Amino acid sequence: MRNKFEEKVRNISAYDVFTVDSQLQKKVIDDLVLFLKTIKTEKNKAKQKQDEKTANNLFYMQCFINAIRCSLKMWIYLKEQKYVDAWHSLVDAQEYMYYSLKAGKDIEKSKLYLYKLKEREQVIFPKFKFVSSGSIIEGGKCSICGRDFNNCEHIEENLYCGSICKRIDYKRLEFTHLALVENPKDRGCIIEEFELDKKIYDWFTLKFKRNTNNIKEMEIKVCAYRVQQLDIF
Amino acid sequence: MSIQIKDFNFETTSNINKVLLIGEENKELQKNVFPISTTNIKKLLENNKISVGYNCDESSICYEDNRAIEYIIPIMYISTQVQILLPIVINLISNYLYDLFKGRENNNVSFRLVIKEKSKMIEYEGPISGMKEITNIIKDKLK
Lengths: 233, 143
Hints:
The structure holds 2 protein chains of 2 kinds. Chain A is of the alpha+beta class. Chain A is built from 5 helices and 10 strands. Chain A has a 4-stranded antiparallel beta sheet with strand order 9-8-7-10, with no helix packed on it. A two-stranded antiparallel sheet of chain A has the order 1-6. A two-stranded antiparallel ribbon of chain A has the order 2-5. The radius of gyration of chain A is 20 Å and the shape is flat. In chain B, strand 9 (about 110-115) and strand 10 form a beta hairpin. Chain B has one domain (about 1-140). The chains are: A alpha+beta, B alpha/beta. The interface between A and B is medium-sized, with 34 and 29 residues.
């Protein structure tokens, strides 16, 4: 599996650039999805044997492949001028790489790809204003053992035999406020459209979108909350 | 990095737990509100044989998630063996946070610690790397 992974990463790097044809990139994504299934089948076998080391190694591969998959999606969205989706794909790719570091495997390789992603962020995208939504939460289950999250021993964001622990299925989730922040937990939450002199502009392209009739308040369009479904379980 | 020490009086009848997590009563919600990190911090300490409790009934607890990258730790009240317990608690939390923020540029943490013997609250805001120095700073400042 390890050799297959190395070979896959090597071969795909040629496709992980802007100029490659989108149809070819989509084919590579399909191939990666199949490879991910193989990785996860092997990971589940390791989990059943309680072979934590193998499961964590496979988790590392799972994250790395997912990061490349997201990066390829970013290029495709950019070419389709779907800039919000492109930004979200880049943020997801970065998140996958942060998770890959938890496996403690090939840290330098992960850091190098993270650096590459950071460079892309700086070159391709504008500086964003981030938003962060405050919420009240009650209850929830543990993604590792399925028990009430408050009554098990698993700690959120820790890696357990190839899977990340998360609090899932909240009993209550109530949004209380929205704030502009420098460092949000989810960098996908950004201002997408802003107002200047009663005109609405797109944050990515700076293109005029429409006039606003809102006299009293400033109008902005934000992505306030993303239900992130990263493949980290 | 900022460390502030303030007077703080907190009374509790509970002596069962070495560490007590203090929430804020929200009358509107009729709940005691804790930061979303609370359950994790409790489990982290309990997994390391440190008994932890809440200053309220567990069924009245809800969590506030501000979804900022800064990690907010609940107010911790250390009732006993401060000299021994404090470095252990700080060490456990900073190691957990180090793993949590691995690879990320921003790794700020904010926490408040109440020490019973001194009736003081210590407020820390800054990077994880500064946390391990807190024990020494606190030792000097609380002499």
